[in-house]
């Protein structure tokens, strides 16, 4: 196992280096082969480790790589920690990453920069693996920043697109805010515990409960302070309410990136971190309450916004945000295993939804607005079924008494039951908010399905489609060259037939190629069966988790003992959401418009994402720019440049002019200067002698 | 210490003198046809003398004295001599081709160089004011002629006259200082001068010291006694300029070090401020002056003034380490400057005439990539940018200054070297980033290419392989001086 974990972690790095440095020299095919091959090897090695833990045959271990820092009392190594928690993350990361690599063969087929893309993907995978195998907080931070970097690079992959660049910067900056919290948390942890080794910290954490520390003049609970700081880091990475604004914009990146980074893996790093440090959080009740509250609030917030968006990827992005909320409040109420379970199942069905959406976008020639979809069920049946399984999974379809259900059913029900079973007021609140969010989840998910796959084609009105029909290529945005777009293979989209379907505009959507459909198929299996197979170990098996997380036996009993109405709530709200979606988007399509007219303010509030971006712009962005401009114009150009480099340079130029004029060529003057120098020296000597 | 052993000590000088006279005879009887032959003889003789000197050096650091202590062939003198001879050989190798092109090659040129080297050789080994002066004048007289070697060229003649007049003035100042020293110490040997200064020295003694320093400052063209330098460097034929910038500089700097340490070692407080002032002024004025130049030779003249400033920082420390650092700098300086002048001589227009205009080197990287590459390395090295060897010279000098607690001096020197970097890098910019001016089209001789390649190799990062032997030799040379203080 020790050698296989080294291969799992470092093979993607090696592939990233080969593909990144080789770039055009290697060509598209070789770099794709190297990176994808590396990921499939890593994936194949990860599953045995995970299944070993499921079967109870594997034990956790730490594989040292090399010594890293040795400074005073601070000492830590590069070491790869493999326990149950890591194993869960390993399979999630390597599986989704391998499938996304494969999917990208088709999706990025026309892009001129494929080696770079695949190198970034593999680099991301390495950083993420580094994060989840971290044995100390600094190594975790290294991975944390590494995934942030890869996320930045990939969001801005189409760097000629201004919106992509803006989104990349936004993601990076917002994450820095969270990272500051994380860093302060790490510093504080080192101060308090005197070590950065995670096992040692976790061992000492319960003993620190209740101790206090001075912070900005106030006396606060040590563990609460540390955990809140660490949680701020988690909020940034996992796009929780307040620091969530970057995630929807991150959809500017290529869709496979959204599936891998902004759905299945990186955004769950915050959840992973809270679970990894669960013994610490258990000693910090206030921090846990905050986690619950923020999780529940994010869950409902994102779900409300998701109901109003038109961009297919944005809907899924808000859905991701909302699902992350579920994970956090599960962790907040102490059900870390349940949180990880939801993380696990979510990775499959959300990656599936994103890749499915990518396939739809691919088929619809880069059109992402659902208003221009419709009736695609017959055109791209495989994608339709994949999306269907994803939707069934995310909406949590399943029946408690039959013990059957899609992946989301098992995990989401467990989350809600854990919140209810916790018995605290906050738990109750989280439960009800979660149930409401589940209703909304069902509504916006089915809305997405109905708008995309049912009804009549509304393609003709789309700019992208009409361009595709007329030129076969989309070059409507001159700042975004067609080769840099999500682009499909070069086929004729226009079918010269008089028998155009109404609203198709003569466009013929095409199903994606095999490289894209195979990942959809595999992920569909995950979305269907992941919950059914793994609910047992994840929720009920204390031995499965071992020492890797704080496992609350009592809570699990309480979770199973909740009343039946609680157990059936998710199914009921799912049906209600489905009904409303059916009503509004299939039965009577005038309802949405009527609703918007009736509740103009509410709709505007939701449609504009609760005005978070606008408020942030006013409070943070504009003043920051103003301050920056002042520093630049007055401080830098006005003072530093003027008296610094520019002043020195002009003094030099003046001096040079003097030097040139003095050198007149006149012999008399030369002799005079010499003698003047001599006289000056002598005068100085005399003055010294006089003293 | 009989005559025979004295003659053994001055064997290199005797060889030079005899060879010079013999070459003169050849030239007188064969005429200018013999100039190539004379050059070859000159190179051979200089090489032989360098080897003999090297053998003399390998023995005792303190060497042996001759003629009652008038001359001493110690490690310090040996270091300076070998350096000067190497520079002279470079000049001899490249000069025939240069003068032949303007049909002005004469057999006298190599002979003058040999006599100049003889003068320098006496200068640096002298331990007596009189013998030092004899060496200095022998060197100077040869130099005046070399400056005006192109007799029908106005600028060359002007250069020779200016050099001669101002040189005469400087010699006068120097002699006046010597006479004062003799008057106040009662002897002309360095030892006598040193002993007279032990008790602090009278005001007249310090006057003498100052005059002597000023006279030497002229020779090394330290500011404010540098005024002749740009005009002479520009006007003199390029091989002469290259020679001036290297060999006599080496000798004059060495003599200055020898006199300040051996004769005025006890008067550190008197001469240190003068040297520091001259150092700072040279660095600043050299850099400022270079910026506005349009003629490459003039620019290199200011560059040499600037470099003298850095050399003087080493001397200003008044320590063994400082003198050693100065010698290291000197050796690297010779390689850089010799390389630069050879590169300049390789710049020719279609008619094979030398090009000295800075604008002419625009886009040189496209037309003559190898020269451009070598010049770029030389310029970066002169600017003291690592990893080139020029950085090491500046580094050891500043290190010595810091160790001697002259931190402000070092700081100003480092800051001013930034100004210097401007014009060095400007040349690189012209060569690499501007459109070709298509002026430099003429071919140049292989000999130039070989010399340039050697210089470029020395100042390349490979030069750092030399740091240890070079440092050892410089330490030994400096130890030879300070052993007597």
UniProtKB/TrEMBL annotation, chain A:
Transmembrane segments: 6-26, 38-58, 78-105, 117-134, 140-159, 180-202, 214-236, 257-281, 287-308, 315-337, 343-361, 382-406, 426-446, 514-535, 568-586, 667-686
Cellular compartments annotated: Endomembrane system; Membrane
Main location: membrane
EC number: 7.1.1.2
Catalysis: reaction(s): a ubiquinone + NADH + 5 H(+)(in) = a ubiquinol + NAD(+) + 4 H(+)(out)
Compositional bias of kind Basic and acidic residues: 470-492
Domain of life assignment: Bacteria
Domain NADH-Ubiquinone oxidoreductase (complex I) chain 5 N-terminal residues, every copy: 68-118
One family name in Pfam for this protein: NADH5_C
The keyword Phosphoprotein appears for this protein: no
NADH:quinone oxidoreductase/Mrp antiporter transmembrane domain mapped to chain residues: 134-433
Topology of the protein relative to the lipid bilayer: Multi-pass membrane protein
Keywords (A to Z) from UniProt: Electron transport, Membrane, NAD, Respiratory chain, Translocase, Transmembrane, Transmembrane helix, Transport, Ubiquinone
InterPro entries in the record: NADH_DH_su5_C, NADHpl_OxRdtase_5_subgr, ND/Mrp_TM, NU5C-like, Proton_antipo_N
Region annotation Disordered: where it falls in the sequence: 470-495
Domain (NADH dehydrogenase subunit 5 C-terminal): residue spans on this chain: 510-679
Name the record gives this protein: NADH-ubiquinone oxidoreductase chain 5
The gene coding this protein: nuoL
From TrEMBL, chain B:
Localization per Swiss-Prot or TrEMBL: Cell membrane; Endomembrane system; Membrane
UniProt entry tagged with the keyword Lipoprotein: no
EC number: 7.1.1.-
InterPro entries noted in UniProt: NADH-Q_OxRdtase_suN/2, ND/Mrp_TM
Spans through the membrane: 6-30, 37-55, 75-95, 107-124, 130-151, 163-184, 204-228, 240-259, 271-292, 299-321, 327-347, 371-392, 404-425, 446-466
Keyword terms of this UniProt record: Cell membrane, Membrane, NAD, Quinone, Translocase, Transmembrane, Transmembrane helix, Transport, Ubiquinone
Membrane protein topology class: Multi-pass membrane protein
UniProt catalytic activity: a quinone + NADH + 5 H(+)(in) = a quinol + NAD(+) + 4 H(+)(out)
Keyword Ribonucleoprotein in annotation: no
Any Pfam family the entry gives: Proton_antipo_M
Domain of life: Bacteria
Major subcellular site: membrane
Coiled coil: none
Domain NADH:quinone oxidoreductase/Mrp antiporter transmembrane per the UniProt entry, residue ranges: 126-420
Family classification: Belongs to the complex I subunit 2 family.
Role according to the record: NDH-1 shuttles electrons from NADH, via FMN and iron-sulfur (Fe-S) centers, to quinones in the respiratory chain. The immediate electron acceptor for the enzyme in this species is believed to be ubiquinone. Couples the redox reaction to proton translocation (for every two electrons transferred, four hydrogen ions are translocated across the cytoplasmic membrane), and thus conserves the redox energy in a proton gradient.
Subunit record text: NDH-1 is composed of 14 different subunits. Subunits NuoA, H, J, K, L, M, N constitute the membrane sector of the complex.
Listed name of the protein: NADH-quinone oxidoreductase subunit N
